[in-house]
Write a structure and sequence with these properties.
Layout (H helix, E strand, L loop, with lengths): L50 E10 L19 E3 L5 E6 L4 E6 L7 E7 L9 E8 L2 E7 L9 E7 L5 E6 L4 E6 L5 E6 L24 E6 L9 E5 L9 H5 L12 E4 L4 E6 L4 E6 L4 E7 L2 E7 L11 E7 L5 E5 L2 E6 L9 E6 L5 E4 L3 H8 L15 E9 L2 E8 L4 E6 L7 E7 L4 E7 L4 E6 L11 E9 L7 E3 L1 E2 L2 E2 L5 E7 L2 E9 L7 E6 L5 E8 L1 E2 L2 E2 L4 E6 L5 E5 L8 E5 L5 E6 L2 H4 L7 E9 L2 E8 L19 E8 L4 E8 L11 E8 L4 E8 L9 E7 L15 E6 L1 H5 L9 E6 L4 E6 L13 E6 H4 L7 E5 L4 E3 L5 E7 L8 E7 L2 E8 L3 E5 L6 E9 L8 E2 L3 E6 L3 E7 L3 E3 L3 E10 L6 E7 L2 E8 L3 E7 L4 E9 L8 E2 L3 E6 L1
Parallel strand pairs: 31-37, 56-63, 65-72
Antiparallel strand pairs: 1-30, 2-3, 3-4, 4-5, 6-7, 7-8, 8-9, 10-11, 11-12, 12-13, 14-15, 15-16, 16-17, 18-19, 20-21, 21-22, 22-23, 24-25, 25-26, 26-27, 28-29, 29-30, 32-33, 34-35, 35-36, 36-37, 38-39, 40-41, 41-42, 42-43, 44-45, 45-46, 46-47, 48-49, 49-50, 50-51, 52-53, 53-54, 55-57, 57-60, ...
């Protein structure tokens, strides 16, 4: 895309595509890696494991500015290349008129390695447009044009080791992109000689073609020392300036002013060249310098786009006959090229295409699928809907880890889409990689399984800073995306700017989210959190009087009674209101804030809403984002104190408001920061979690925290404003930094799901002054994070302090939670390491039947496992004395009479109270033992030999065991005769 700057010199901010195929390393970038660099895992694509690119680091290039240049100076990283060992990345900085160097030896911790100002090589207004590394040299393409009609430029050859220029080659025009052939024999440079977008040629509109001089291609043979290199010009018009017949036949829009844009060279030294404004593609044979093929990129007619800037993400529009106007180009193989169809003045098809260079036909086209990726990932920029949507601009093709990828960059939605392009006729989307604003340079580094993405947008005043992002191919999925939308009726649910979260009552797997004023009318989204990434499954439109309501929904709360409370911030104090909706999203009631509040709020008003229910009814709590101002026009003096913000309670029953103060942390004292509240969530009936955050993002971010406050038992009187005591519960900054991306500013949404899981989300601002990335976080469990407020008390009681072995006494366990919390869950009672009873807690108590109690003094403990809002707990030990179990023994002789010496059968039964005794039994004839045996069941039959005559009196004696008391049977008699 061309960017014009004021005269006398046109500015050129461009990117270069790299698509190189070498015998050892397919897809190596612009001579960056020598064959000595062995691919990390060439077989990784075949090992069966899931592979994806993991973001390892995001380096803001302002950190690499010279020491004498302020960090607030504009600086970008547009086009990049890498040294042959893959460890030194070189990038262009057109805004800073320099090239920069990064040490990426450790892809998780890149370091600035200094820069080279072009003022040292030429003029202070010289601008680098592209860069390539060949061997030990950096080739810097420089625009030195005095005006649009006097284009000029040069190619500087700089030694990589010490940044010394060893040669400078005049290019006779304004250069754009550069590419190096895979065999490093040729360098090709697109000499655009770009048009003045503010100039209207005779009889035409502003920015139209032709605007001479015509562009061309420069080729440099890389033979000998750089001091001997000479450019060779390939003109794209006749010597007299008339159009070449092949350009006319291909229906090039203005064949006398071709304006070449991007160059890419394949393994057969064929140069592919895009003519963006002319919607054309040219193929040139470099050895002979012959133009072999010219064809039009054609147009697209398709449906499934959003072409209206209206705050609605609706993929129901069509493109009809829209020309592609390709920007970046890359060779897929020796007969196919891929283009990123950014468009320029008359076109742009919001996607990318694959062409056959044999006949110029379209092999594959993305249609609306590229735009749908932006929508599904929450990265669609509705501000660009009426123009060119996500604007596919950069493109690179390389084989990484055994798979040939096409990497396609979205300039306006800040991402790079990775496709498996092994089959040029059927690319397969694999992954979306988030970038900072305006991803321009896309640099695969196959020898290290890396991808570098550099961005061209830098707005220090908004802390939108250009960076280089690094991604490494590895096992498993990346952490991005953390949330996406499902398709409904064939289209992804359109979403953006998620700043509000609420649990769904009774459903642990579902939460709700809402978008702020970015989307119109207001939208409430249903989110399935059982899957990773979380999935937005549907959108509910908020309505008023049957029509969609345009709201600034900063927060929402799903009511157990049904429907929602919505906090609408509004553009003025009076527009800060609460809305209550039914389950269908229809507004049923609107609650105004007191004028004592709204008269002192200009903006940054309602930012949080939650509710509790008790015997006195429903209570709605709100959080204001910033202080109340004495005068809302100048906002210099505060009503309550410099760092005091308000939290309010609205009692639904009597419609009364009550206000409390919350003291914010101090902002960073540099004028660009402020601190405010972003959310309030009920932890229990009187404990609330609040999100406090600063205004800073990226490396500057420092305050992204969740605190808790307790509401006082009594309401404030009159104008009294109690200042609540806050306690730090969770610092969320480490979780935001763990993404290895640009640390997001707006930590806004937070909720506690029905199972106590904690979720947080960042507001992507609809990509306005933001990268657009949404970070959806799983932040642990409420009972861990809020342990001090959700702790429980567990008590154990027994009906008696004594029991006998085999008894099953019933213990009572009571669990008390925080205010308004009635614990549920399970409890177990242990005796040392042995579980002797389990039960379910209902209404805060459980009746537990104990079993398996051992004889002796037992030390019993009740262990509560916890639930969503009550932490686990353990009771104090309770002592229980367990005596031996009682037994009863019975004896039955089968015969009442027997001969001397005859054996008779005796049945002995030993029964325990609740258990089965074991042990030794003796049968005695008087005092003499006539039989000894063991029992292990209730009844045992044995034979007894009687050797004395007369009336014998027999008894069975159970001698007992470790757990059973002894017992004796009644007498049974047998008459023994001779």
């Amino acid at each position: 895309m061309s960017h014009a700057s004021p005269q006398p010199r046109p500015s050129r901010l461009s990117s270069v595509v790299r698509s190189v195929s070498r015998p050892a390393l397919v897809g190596v970038v612009a001579g960056a890696l020598a064959a000595a660099v062995v691919p990390v895992t060439q077989a990784s694509a075949d090992d069966g494991a899931e592979k994806s690119f993991h973001r390892t680091a995001t380096y803001p290039v302002y950190k690499n500015l010279p020491k004498d240049v302020s960090a607030s100076s504009e600086t970008v990283a547009e086009i990049s290349d890498v040294s042959k060992d893959g460890r030194t990345l070189v990038y262009t900085d057109a805004l800073g008129k320099r090239i920069g160097f990064l040490d990426i030896s450790d892809p998780k911790a890149p370091e600035g390695a200094g820069s080279l100002s072009l003022a040292q090589l030429g003029d202070t207004d010289d601008q680098p447009t592209s860069v390539a590394v060949v061997g030990t040299y950096v080739l810097v393409v420089v625009d030195t044009s005095a005006s649009f009609t006097e284009p000029s430029g040069r190619l500087d050859v700089v030694r990589l080791a010490d940044s010394k220029r060893v040669a400078s080659i005049p290019l006779d025009g304004q250069p754009d992109s550069i590419d190096v052939s895979p065999d490093e024999k040729y360098v090709a440079i697109a000499m655009e000689n770009q048009r003045n977008e503010e100039l209207a040629p005779a009889g035409k509109q502003k920015g139209d073609l032709p605007q001479l001089p015509a562009g061309f291609v420069q080729v440099v043979d890389l033979q000998g020392a750089p001091t001997t290199w000479k450019p060779s010009r390939i003109d794209l018009v006749n010597p007299d300036g008339t159009a070449l017949p092949s350009f006319v036949d291909a229906k090039i829009v203005e064949p006398t002013d071709p304006e070449p844009e991007y160059v890419s060279i394949n393994s057969k030294n064929k140069l592919a060249l895009t003519l963006q404004e002319n919607n054309g593609i040219v193929v040139i044979d470099l050895p002979s310098r012959a133009i072999e093929k010219v064809f039009s990129a054609g147009s697209v007619t398709a449906t499934g786009f959003d072409t209206k800037k209206d705050g609605k993400i609706s993929l129901t529009d069509s493109l009809t006959g829209v020309v592609r106007e390709p920007d970046a180009i890359g060779w897929v193989d020796d007969t196919h090229v891929a283009t990123a169809n950014e468009g320029d003045w008359k076109g742009g098809t919001r996607g990318w295409s694959v062409f056959s260079t044999v006949d110029g036909s379209v092999t594959w086209d993305a249609g609306s699928s590229f735009e749908k990726l932006a929508v599904a990932h929450g990265l669609y920029n509705d501000d660009r809907a009426a123009k060119k949507g996500p604007e596919a601009e950069g493109l690179a093709i390389a084989t990484v880890g055994g798979t040939k990828y096409a990497f396609v960059g979205s300039e306006r939605s800040n991402f790079v889409a990775a496709y498996d392009i092994s089959d040029p006729s059927a690319p397969v989307f694999k992954q979306l990689l988030p970038a900072t604003n305006g991803p321009e340079g896309i640099l695969p580094i196959p020898g290290r399984n890396l991808l570098a993405v550099s961005s061209e947008t830098d707005v220090p005043a908004s802390n939108v800073r250009a960076s280089v992002s690094l991604f490494e191919l590895g096992d498993g999925p990346d952490t991005f995306p953390s949330i996406v939308s499902d398709d409904v009726d064939g289209q992804p649910v359109g979403w953006s700017a998620l700043g509000a979260l609420s649990a769904k009552p009774g459903d642990a797997g579902t939460i709700y989210a809402a978008a702020d004023t970015v989307l119109k009318p207001g939208q409430i989204f249903t989110v399935d959190v059982t899957r990773k990434p979380a999935r937005i499954t549907s959108a509910l439109t908020v309505t008023k009087g049957g029509a969609g309501a345009n709201l600034d929904i900063e927060r929402l709360f799903a009511r157990p009674q049904g429907g929602f409370w919505l906090a609408n911030e509004g553009a003025t104090g009076a527009e800060n209101v609460l809305h209550r909706t039914d389950a269908a999203g229809a507004i049923q009631e609107t609650v105004q804030l007191p004028t004592s509040i709204t008269d002192h709020v200009k903006n940054w008003g309602l930012e949080g809403v939650t509710a509790t229910n008790d015997a006195r009814g429903e209570h709605v709590f709100v959080a204001l984002q910033r202080q109340l101002w004495t005068d809302v026009k100048d906002q210099t003096e505060t009503v309550d104190g410099d760092n005091i913000v308000r939290i309010g309670r609205y009692d639904v029953a009597d419609k009364s408001w009550h206000w409390f103060g919350y003291e914010l942390e101090s902002p960073k004292r540099d004028g660009n920061d402020w601190v405010g509240l972003s959310e309030i969530t009920a932890v229990d009936d009187d404990t609330f979690a609040v999100v406090e955050r600063d205004k800073l993002n990226g490396p500057s971010a420092r305050n992204k925290r969740i605190y808790t406050v307790d509401m006082p038992a009594t309401d404030p009187k009159g104008d009294e404003l109690p200042i609540l005591t806050k306690r730090l519960a969770l610092d969320v900054l480490p979780a935001l930094r763990a993404t290895n991306g640009w640390t997001q500013e707006k930590l806004e949404g937070f909720t506690i799901a029905a199972d106590g899981a904690l979720y947080g989300v960042t507001d992507n601002d609809g990509l306005k002054d933001a990268t657009g990335e949404t970070v959806f976080m799983r932040l642990g469990r409420a009972t861990d994070v809020f342990a001090d407020r959700l702790s429980s008390t567990t008590t154990l009681s027994l009906p008696s302090g004594a029991a006998a072995y085999g008894e099953k006494p019933t213990a009572t366990v009571k669990v008390t939670g925080g205010a308004g919390v009635v614990p549920s869950g399970t409890v177990r009672i242990t005796d040392g390491g042995t579980v002797v009873g389990r039960a379910t807690v209902e209404g805060g108590s459980a009746q537990v039947t104990l079993s398996g109690l051992r004889v002796g003094t037992r030390r019993l403990v009740a262990e509560y496992t916890g639930d969503a809002r009550a932490g686990a707990g353990t009771s104090a030990p309770v002592t229980l004395t367990v005596a031996k179990g009682g037994t009863s023994t019975s004896l039955s002789i089968a015969k009442t009479s027997a001969r001397k010496g005859q054996k008779v059968t005796a049945k002995v039964r030993v029964v325990g109270a609740g258990f089965t005794p074991t042990g030794r039994v003796q049968i005695k004839d008087g005092s003499r033992v006539v039989k000894t045996f063991h029992v292990s069941g209730a009844t045992r039959s044995v034979t007894v030999k009687l050797t004395k005559t007369g009336r014998r009196t027999l008894k069975a004696y159970y001698v007992g065991s470790d757990v059973a008391a002894p017992s004796t049977s009644k007498v049974d008699t047998v008459r023994v005769r001779r």
